[in-house]
Design goal:
The protein is an alpha/beta fold and about 425 residues long. The chain contains 14 helices and 24 strands. A four-stranded mixed sheet has the order 22-23-1-24. A four-stranded mixed sheet has the order 2-15-17-16. It has a four-stranded mixed sheet with strand order 4-5-3-14. The two termini are about 25 Å apart. Bound molecules: uridine-diphosphate-N-acetylglucosamine.
Length: about 425
């Protein structure tokens, strides 16, 4: 298994390009199941989770081809297996995104219960209640969710008791081919939901209200193929900006969109970062240490839970005491134990973490526990004195494209090695 070795304490400088957003690309890929023509995707990131989704859709019978330019072609017309087996879904919760499209197209589906990051219970009950409201029956058989609509789904009014991103996306896709109108209340407003709605419209769907908490989908008989684009990865963008800040450097992320990151940029500005934005780039730097400030994770447009761990790494070396409240997921503080091993001053109390900033962390062997937690450990390692060795890096490969190469281009001393000690991949000490 690969490990990432980091020699910390080097300020990062330069410009790095944002990749396409994993969390936007995944539902877009699932949407191909609905289309009765080929869909061409641009800006698909090379990531483990994307490979998993491609493999799943190909397993269902679709033709899937990926070129080296982040361009992907999917023709789902020959798909004939409305299923998602355990072996393909166990590593990725987002595989449940195929459920809505499969039921909409085939009238029934059998999908194994998803795995993915171990951050809390993460049920999909709201997805299933929504499909029931649209006329499907739902049962559990041998660990699989079996959904049967006995034909075409029908439109329904669905009021989510809790904001769910993939739940909103799943039901938006299901409703696209349903008979009649579906109204999603308390829907997620994340930019990735808007990217999906834009894509579906481009393919012939009739959707309005995305970006607000009330989305209306007027079901259509069919949607066609087309050419679609994935938005910039706001979480990756913020992670590289945080890498610049935590090392006292000066980093610009290009090909991104500052509008997607308002809550994060507001908080780092409050913490003392100097932020300069153009229409598609963000530059961040800081004079001296950041100042402590508090955050509370919330659905969009609030502070994203997917940046909580990275923000905590920043607060570990900020001046003063801060409090982080995690309101979206239980058990999303698994990085804390690892940060403590690097000398951080953190105490946990339920959904709250109190952080006492110290001038410098110290490098240590640490273990990645989930995708964004592993990003926080890389950030901590970049700032720490000495060597940090991160194991279980497959977590980070689920969501960060060529992370050691991108950080290396900014001057980070970071290297990936496999178990036998050989270094692999592109270059490293920059
Ligand atoms: C998506 C993102 C993930 C992000 C999360 C919150 C993708 C592929 N993943 O995950 O990176 O951290 O949004 O922004 O886009 N819940 C239920 N029942 C359900 C569905 C959700 O109780 O049926 C709860 C969850 O346990 C959680 C909360 O709702 O506490 C939000 O989860 P949700 O928005 O669904 O997260 P995901 O869509 O899985």
């Amino acid at each position: 298994m690969d490990k990432i070795f980091i020699q910390g304490g080097v300020p990062l400088h330069g410009t790095v390009e944002s990749s396409g957003a994993k969390n936007a690309a995944l539902p877009l890929l699932a949407a191909s199941i609905l289309a009765d023509g080929p869909v061409v995707y641009h800006r698909i990131p090379h990531l483990l989770d994307i490979t998993t989704m491609m493999t799943l859709i190909a397993w269902q019978g679709a033709e899937v081809t990926y070129d080296d330019q982040h361009c992907l072609h999917i023709d789902s017309r020959k798909a004939n297996k409305p299923q998602a087996p355990y072996d393909l879904v166990k590593t990725m919760r987002a595989s449940s995104l195929v459920l809505g499209p499969l039921v909409a197209r085939f009238g029934h589906a059998r999908v194994s219960l998803p795995g993915g990051c171990a951050i809390g219970a993460r049920p999909i009950d709201l997805h299933l209640r929504g499909l029931e409201a649209m006329g499907a029956s739902v049962s559990m058989e041998h660990g699989d969710v079996v959904v049967d609509a006995g034909g075409r789904l029908h439109g329904a009014k669905i009021d989510f008791s809790q904001v769910t991103v993939t739940g909103t996306e799943n039901l938006m896709m299901a409703a696209t081919l349903a008979k009649g109108t579906t109204v999603l209340e308390n829907a997620a407003r994340e930019p990735e939901v808007v990217n999906l709605a834009d894509t579906l419209r481009q393919l012939g769907a009739d959707i309005e209200g995305d970006g607000t908490s009330r989305i209306v989908i007027y079901g259509v008989e069919r949607i066609h193929g087309g050419e679609v684009h994935v938005i910039a990865d706001r979480i990756e963008t913020a992670t590289y900006l945080a890498a610049g800040l935590i090392t006292g450097g000066d980093v610009t992320v290009s090909h991104t969109d500052p509008r997607l990151l308002a809550a994060f940029l507001e908080k780092i500005t409050e913490a003392g970062a100097i932020v300069d934005c153009t229409v598609d780039s963000i530059r961040c730097r800081v004079n001296g240490r950041l100042r402590a400030c508090d955050i509370k994770t919330m659905p969009h447009p609030g502070f994203p839970t997917d940046l909580q761990a990275q923000f905590m790494a920043l607060m570990c070396t900020a001046e003063g005491n801060s409090v982080i409240a995690e309101t979206i997921f239980e058990n999303r503080f698994m990085h804390v134990q690892e940060l403590l091993r690097m000398g951080a001053g953190i105490t946990l109390d339920g959904h709250f973490a109190s952080i006492h900033g110290i001038p410098q962390l110290s490098g240590a062997p640490v273990m990645a526990t989930d995708l964004r937690a592993s990003a926080s450990l890389v950030l901590a390692g970049l700032a720490a004195k000495g060597e940090t060795i991160l194991s279980r890096v497959y977590h980070i490969d689920r969501g960060y494209e060529r992370i050691e190469e991108k950080l290396g281009s900014l001057g980070a001393r970071i290297e990936r090695r496999n178990e036998t000690g050989n270094s692999r991949g592109a270059m490293i000490y920059g």
